[in-house]
Design the sequence.
């Protein structure tokens, strides 16, 4: 039982390049989330998926897209990377058996450290 | 808008000292409250949570937090810290009906042996 896994662990991009961050969970959780963590800013929600087949914008969605590929996987795509997207990206999941998002503990992955030059 | 404030971003203390980290939020309705910890180089883990019931919540590793509704606060405490408690601590709040979990900016805690 690996929990939440993320790939890659580290990535360096040039401005304008694109990439996809992968996230998978093996806990049969309904909801999944993407956050970015910047020094002194805490965690900020980029996008979330309350259940398979749905996605919604969070606090800072500009410059990102997401895909809930199936119940296990939730990917984050940067179409044209910018230096302002240099950050640590965390994926998380939660069970939410009642279907009420945000009412349950979130389990976090190890993070992807992204640098955009 | 829902916001979470954590004070004293950097805290340095010696082993066996007591620790208290403040967390205040801005929403007046029903809330779910969390404290997460991030050890150096690791991902966030849940320390404790409050949904309802006894406002004094006990978590892992000897941590506890008290929900004081009248003060909109959920302060984290540990009576005697260890070097292994060196980490960053995040308070998080969900206001029921709001589609997000708002995180505070974190407290960087360093425990000196």
Sequence:
């Amino acid at each position: 039982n690996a929990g939440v896994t993320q790939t890659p662990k580290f990535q360096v991009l040039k401005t304008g390049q694109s990439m996809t961050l992968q996230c998978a969970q093996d806990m049969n959780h309904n909801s999944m989330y993407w956050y970015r963590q910047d020094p002194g800013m805490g965690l900020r929600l980029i996008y979330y998926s309350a259940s398979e087949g749905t996605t919604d914008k969070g606090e800072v969605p500009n410059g990102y897209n997401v895909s809930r590929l199936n119940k296990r996987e939730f990917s984050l795509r940067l179409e044209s990377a910018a230096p302002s997207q240099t950050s640590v990206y965390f994926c998380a999941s939660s069970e939410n058996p009642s279907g009420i998002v945000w009412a349950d503990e979130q389990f976090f992955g190890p993070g992807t450290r992204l640098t955009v030059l | 808008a829902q916001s979470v404030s954590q004070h004293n971003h950097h805290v340095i203390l010696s082993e066996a000292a007591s620790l208290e980290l403040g967390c205040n939020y801005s929403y007046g309705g029903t809330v779910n409250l969390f404290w997460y910890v991030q050890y150096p180089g690791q991902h966030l883990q849940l320390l404790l949570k409050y949904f309802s019931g006894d406002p004094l919540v006990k978590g892992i590793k000897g941590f506890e937090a008290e929900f004081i509704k009248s003060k909109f606060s959920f302060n984290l405490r540990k009576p005697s810290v260890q070097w292994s408690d060196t980490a960053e601590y995040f308070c998080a709040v969900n206001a029921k009906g709001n589609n997000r979990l708002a995180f505070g900016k974190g407290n960087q805690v360093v425990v000196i042996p």
User: Anything to note?
Assistant: DSSP finds no helices and twelve strands in chain B. Chain B touches chain A at residues 4, 9, 32, 34, 36, 42-46, 49, 51, 90, 92, 94, 96, 98-101, 103-106 (CB under 8 Å). Residues 24 and 73 of chain B are 4 Å apart (CA to CA). The two ends of chain B are 41 Å apart (CA to CA).
